[in-house]
Here is the input.
Amino acid sequence: MRTITTKYKLYEDYDGTIYEVELPLSSRIDVQHVAEELGLPEYLDLSNPSLVRALVTVWAALRCPYMDHLFPSLKGKVSKPMPVLLFGGAAVKVHSPTANKPGHALNRGLNDVDFVVRKKDGALFTKLLLILSDALGTQYMYFATSGDKWFNALRGGKRYRVHGLNGFEGGGLGTCVVDIFCEELLFRHTIRLKEEFERAKETLYTIGLENLLLSKLQFIFSVPVEKLAQLEASGQSFRVLPYRYLKGMVVVGMELKDMKDVAVLLIDHEIGEGVEAINPKVLRNTLEKDKAFAQTVRLNLQNLLDNVDVLKKNGLSPSETEEVAAAATELLKAIPEVNKQWSKPWWNVYVESPGLEGVR
Here is the structure.
């Protein structure tokens, strides 16, 4: 029986260009085979479209030098596999069985997926994304808007941006920005990842457990004390960090979704050395070189410890809450203490960062 297809409008650019996708979405790749070839755990929920899109993208970047018939426009340009690393919610799901359990409080929705590549691979990887749907099916569609093209041109090969599909889990198809970082995550604190590409398979094609934790614990910014009432009204007062800052200002840390991601990593992994363990020595070595980053990580970890009841209210069991508290306490012992009082932001202020939902 022939499948009836329709065109679905995804995005209209300011120059009038319309980006469409053909429905139903198609996939010409065996996702189970992709996961097995990458050596990924069996617990992964391969019914999650965003996670599948991320894994297939990683696989395609590794395989494209050997598949000229699928990627003819890259023939001769990509002579070696391009290792790609995941971070954020996708990486958490790759590392944590609990984050894949149906109905579990720490199995949160996943829509947007971002990537980290080597600087020398940035332009080619971006080009690969834009032809991926032609080769593997519309489920893996990426496109570059006029704004994306300007963004890419102005970033000097340090970062790229395209648009991808999202909204799978919300019941309506939409689009999201897909960020492609080159060797560094330029957040409130910079996380350098150049060496991580050498052990991509070992870390399951993610930035690694320690860097993943740091990427969650780096979030920090300040707001006037007058915003405290709005924080309370929006249920976000738990984000106020235990730090005496500038007069009339308070310091705010990671949001609930990041607290959940940190919690699930702490529940599913031992603190110690070995495969799939969170190594406190690695964290310490990184943070000893950057006191400002160490301060932020300590504050967010301490705040997580002080507010574990927030996690319990959001569905964690008493035993899981105890595990999170014990692990956070152990990590705090390993992270360098910072005996310095800052009178101005000790974090990067000129970066794109989410604000406070419900607070203006």
Q: What stands out?
A: The mean pLDDT is 93. Residues 6-199 form one domain. The two ends are 54 Å apart (CA to CA).
